[in-house]
Amino acid sequence: MNWLQSCRKFFRPGNPRHNRGGRDPQRRLLIVAALTVAWTGATLGRLAYLQLIRYSDYSSRAQHQQRVIVEVEAKRAEIFDRNLRALAMSVQMDSCFAVPSEIADPDMVARLLSRVLEVPTEEISTRLASSRSFVWIARKLPPEKADRIAALNLRGIYFQREGGRFYPKRELAAHVLGYVDIDEKGLGGVEYSLDDDIRSKPGRMLILADAHRRYYDSTDKAPDAGTTVVLTLDENIQYIAEKELDAAIRETHSQSGTIIVENPSNGELLAVANWPTFNPNAAKDSAPESRMDRAASALYEPGSVFKIVTLSAAIDQGITNPDDVIDCQNGAIYIAGHRIRDHKPFGLLTVSQVLSNSSDIGAIKVGLRLGAPKFYDYIRAFGFGQPTGVDLPGESRGMLRRVENWTPVSTGSISMGQEIGVTPLQLITAMSSIANGGVIVRPHVVLALRRGARMAEPPQPQPRRVIRATTAATMRGLLEGVVLNGTGKLARLDGYTTAGKTGTAQKFDPATGRYSTHQLIASFVGFAPINTPAVTVLVTLDSAVGLHQGGQIAAPVFKRVAQQVLAYLNVPQDVPVAERNLHASSHHSQEPNLSDVADFNAEQSETAAASDFSVSVAQEPAAGTPAPTVEFAEGEAILVPAFEGKAVREVTEECTKLGLNPVLVGTGIATEQSPGAGATIRRGSRITVQFARGVLASSAAHRRGNK
What we know:
single chain, 707 residues, alpha+beta, 7-stranded mixed sheet, 5-stranded antiparallel sheet, 22 helices, 26 strands, 22% strand
């Protein structure tokens, strides 16, 4: 009380002590007010600076402290075969994550999780110590492991649903499909080449925290849907190819192999099988060599199969013809001081016999006639030395030196399939061009892309003509002779005309600097039926043990694959049943001895490529059927001319002028036709013409004369 009274006296007006020095109460109040205003202004200024100028900075800091955004990868779209059977899909899987700030005893949690996940305790402890906000513990867990972790009921351990890639057919078409990593990023095959389309945009998971860093809420933003891919592959044909390749590998003990089935008219790949293979569901557990797509990237010297390019180019240029006789010099020739020997001492052979017997000397002489510049142009035109453009990653361009870098012996070597590296896709593309009438069609595996209800087909380049249609028709006849009379007899189909070429290529041995006599690549590539080809099939087997010739081991695989595929596709047979039964009872249709189809001689010079040997058999004629009587609109009727006695080229040219679709069976001179000469048929109709050579043609003419 005394203290309060003293204060009042002090501030009483007129008090001499209060007014000492001339100061009055108003001045003191002004000082206090000024200090108050200054403090308030500074506070408001600081608040304005923080709220107006530094607002975005501090807001972002607060958001960073209060919430965690975790990217959730996009759900990959499905991949289907041509019949919309699923080959790759995404399924929902549980992924386990931790919020370390909520875990009271990290060591105990690490021990418990390590037992379930079967990983070292130290690894989980390291993850928990790496962050206080969010760490992944295990991604895309199997259901049984996710259930066991959930049963532990550990604080700070949570689950997030993620899309996991699943391949229901396991190894089927693994190299075409490819595989993905843990983050669903494509790493091979179509999964890689179309990753941006299949993957689309990722989603997000938002986790909120309070002031004590306790996480109390989370929200999800679903990823966008990707683009569905429809492939040209047929699941059933792919299964046939892989089944037969697996059987061939086990029978021959080959190191690797490839089978390709293609539609020669449009380049659609119906099957692409490679061995060794892998399971894309567990790609990380497979060896790197098993994930290699050998169809697109394996490089090898083709050997005798390449003679189809040599002869096609020469015939297309008019340099030779099937009946042209070539002196094979008893199996030896010198080129620029290099002696090249044939696998057999052939003498005089026609060009057709050069192909069916696969004479190296004959092919070399044809190549030398053609000349290096023209030969090089045709090799490039057939697509060698450059990518085919297939929509698969990792394609090799092959190996072809520029013509100015060829040596004096190069023309001869390349004529028989050496000094050039090809891929299986390049080789089947070249054979398909002969099958389809002389045009190169780009091989492809993507049939369509579907996003929502919209379906779009990827643009394809226009087919490019490489040889004339008449040249292709002539080559089809020559290649039929390989199957009927040459090293390809084990590829002959039941009920279908067949054309193809065997090959056995020596592999270069870096250790010796020479071609190996026992490390060989056996191959066969062919098509059927001959004049209306439905499929082209390529078979390669690398380094077989025991029998290793293309005609011995690759041709039978071609037959098993093509026979099943043609039946599956319901392709009409073009060899009449009665004729098949007639030839089945004759000695000509008996299974050839394996020595008859041997296509390599280990005693050949290392300069010579592997070649083919054959034993001639009689060629099958095809029975004709009379044309039915029909009514025609004006301008549609075509009077069938007489083709008997004419060559394949003449028949093809005349049919083309008349607008008829010729089905040419055999080679040589026309002996029979159906419908017969003088019949009236519709423009665009098929007409079957049977050809024969030598004695067969003479006997057919004699029979007609006796009728």
